[in-house]
Amino acid sequence: MKNSILYIFSLIISASFFSCNNSENSKNGDRGALASSAAEKVYVAPGEHDDFYAFISGGYSGNLTVYGLPSGRMFKEIPVFSQFPTSGYGYSEETKPMLNTSHGFIPWDDSHHPDISQTEGKLDGRWIFINGNNTPRIAKIDLKTFETTEIIEVPNSAGNHSSSFVTENTEYVVAGTRFSVPVPQQDMPINEYKGKFKGTLSFISVAPETGRMNIKFQLIMPGFDYDLSHPGRGKSHGWFFFTTYNTEEANTLLEVNASQNDKDFIAAVNWKKIEEYVNNGGGKMMPAEYAHNVYDDHTHTATSTMKKEVLTVDPTEVPGAVFLLPTPKSPHGCDVDPSGEYIIGNGKLSADLTIHSFTKMIDAIENKRFDGDAYGIPILKFEDVLAGTVKQAGLGPLHTEFDGKGNAYTTFFISSELVKWNVETQEVIDRQPNYYSVGHVMIPGGNSAHPFGKYAVSMNKITKDRYLPTGPELEHSAQLFDISGDKMELLLDFPTHGEPHYAAGIPAEIIKENSQKIYKLAENKHEYATIANGDARVERDGNEVHVYMTMIRSHFTPDNIEGIKVGDKVYFHITNHEQDFDVPHGFAMIGANNAELLIMPGQTKTLTWEPKKVGVWPFYCTDFCSALHQEMQGYIRVSPK
Ligand code: CUK
Ligand code: CUA
Questions:
Q1: Which class for 621: exposed (0-12), middle (13-18), buried (19 or more C-beta within 10 A)?
Q2: What number is the ipTM of this complex?
Q3: Which residue has the CA at smallest separation from atom 6 of ligand 1?
Q4: Does ligand 1 have an atom closer than 6 angstroms to the CB of 112?
Q5: Atom 1 in ligand 1: which residue has the minimum CA distance?
Q6: Where in the chain is the domain with CATH 2.60.40.420?
Q7: 521-639 belongs to which CATH class?
Q8: How far is the CA of 155 from the centre of ligand 1 (A)?
Q9: Cα(241)–Cα(355) distance, rounded to whole angstroms?
Q10: Which pTM does this prediction carry?
Q11: Quick check: CB of 365 below 6 Å from ligand 1?
């Protein structure tokens, strides 16, 4: 145990040595010439478009940001798990239900891993999924509208980290717990963790047409921490792989406890086998409360349903479904190469990378060469499944992506570098410093059978001197590399928002073709929509007042409202009658708690207002929509009770 502490210290010390070295190097050489060739490669002329979309996780912002590559320009922040003032997401009556959970309304989360839907191992650009880490949830964003359209809570999970990765036909989006917890939750001493706390791996089916999510089954696993996961593909399609740490099942993870075992595991799950088992009536229903929230594009309204039970599967009852592959040094990233043969465990306390072979794994399973089953699950022998090791590749490997040309790119947090190596020969080809302390790397399609190996984006944890100082907090820093040649070439630094963990990239044309420009007013099925202008009106029902309002350049109808009293609850149901691309209107009401709305053409949104003061109060449009934007305004008269 002492040794492991010393080991970590030595890693940290070498880390600072490495980074000093790196910054020195960058100051030498012909920077001017380098800069101008790099500038040309990232330059997107005014009016031109980028080649790729990059969807970058917002980390503790709870959202997802959209960038263009190679320019590094930010196009949009898509609100997912957090309220978002710019669009009113989570504030308007229509979108509040999206943030509903079994713990109540949760307006802020931590989002980690976006993954784009696939068909036959290719990115299809229909949806992007992302996990809410803190209050476990999986969200689906529709890439036609860039709106979050579904969020499903994951019960029996805590720290929903080994999520949200999709199988090669988007049969499932998978969510694994980071923390093991009592399942079902109950009051018990924390130090009785061992053997009693459980981890859950949830397979959430995605309906082929609608994309509707449903927890098909939940695998109840030993009490490890499940860190990351990746699907098998090609020959390993039908399997899913999860890295684990804390296989000691310790209830306190001070370093001495967590790193006792020299090896933890990659758990290999044959989900096809379990799917068959549950389709034949296997598994047990367990009471579990979790929210399922769906946003409808036609009603422009979200509804939240509370589910009551979940189907659980005990892996010991499905022989041949789950195996444990010993993997050194607390593996973090769990990455499968495009062919589906190699499963890479990035042992974060190690200098080496471990590569397992799917073929060898199957061979060992078929010949029943096991090393016991300490947790009731067969454990394979390390040497039996090992394809090879990338030796002394760097310090503190975290994540690996692939370029589709036989190369892998692994990030090293401690030595702060991106290392390119050949998947077959396991030889290091190139290494480039990262400024500073890289977490994930993303190659568009790099987590599919068909990567687009032109650019790699590393997402760095520490920014320091890379940008002008902005007080104690700096945005995180991403770095764009050209990976089309043998050597990686650093092209660009750009700031990212929140703390990006993973990202997903896709060629722009796949998304552009399907992008929806407007919501059709004629198809607006909102309960409180005002489709005909003449229907704009004010209706009272006790002390509730419903204002059916329309907006079009550049006025509101009605724009003078009287008869409101202190103590009333006023609902402004506002329909945007524009039918032109990119002409939203805003609505701001003085003194309203959720003070503003932003409404897209053809859409209806609702703001509530409970006036507390007598007077005549203005409202106005917040989005500069025409030369008469400043005239887009109105008054409400509030009389005493
Ligand atoms: S984690 Cu953040 S750097 Cu959530 Cu994928 Cu490894
Ligand atoms: Cu509508 Cu400004």
A1: buried
A2: 0.96
A3: 439
A4: yes
A5: 501
A6: 521-639
A7: mainly beta
A8: 22
A9: 13
A10: 0.94
A11: no
